[in-house]
Design goal:
Helices cover 79% and strands 0% of the residues. The protein is mainly α. The protein has four helices and no strands. The chain is elongated, with a radius of gyration of 27 Å. Helix 1 packs across helix 3.
């Protein structure tokens, strides 16, 4: 009889341990996701600054390798660099469409130059 009671307590203890590990694992996962989201929001400024840098007339003639090296030196990650170049490319495409439609007056483009 004592053996059965000990075995039941041991099983309960093992179940409690498993449940605690599951909870800790969920919390760790949620915390990691939360930290990644906070980092992404916090780094939005750096991505926007990179896009502004890429838009500068003085920079347009620089090689992509130089631009990448410069922005890496500012601490941007590969993902942030890709995002900055993607946004810059999209802005260029929008400007081309606007210019083709005759919307190249300053009033129509003022918002396009800000990031």
């Amino acid at each position: 009889r004592r053996q059965g009671a000990f075995s039941a307590r041991q099983q309960t203890s093992q179940n409690d341990d498993l449940e605690q590990k599951e909870v800790v694992g969920r919390v760790d996962h949620e915390e990691k996701e939360s930290m990644q989201a906070a980092r992404a929001v916090g780094r939005e400024h750096e991505i926007n600054s990179a896009v502004i840098f890429l838009k500068q007339v003085e920079v347009t003639d620089f090689s992509k390798a130089y631009k990448l090296k410069f922005l890496e030196g500012k601490g941007l990650t590969n993902e942030e660099l890709e995002e900055a170049f993607r946004r810059h490319h999209e802005d260029q495409e929008v400007r081309k469409v606007m210019d083709a439609k005759g919307g190249n007056d300053r009033g129509a483009n003022d918002g396009m130059n800000e990031c």
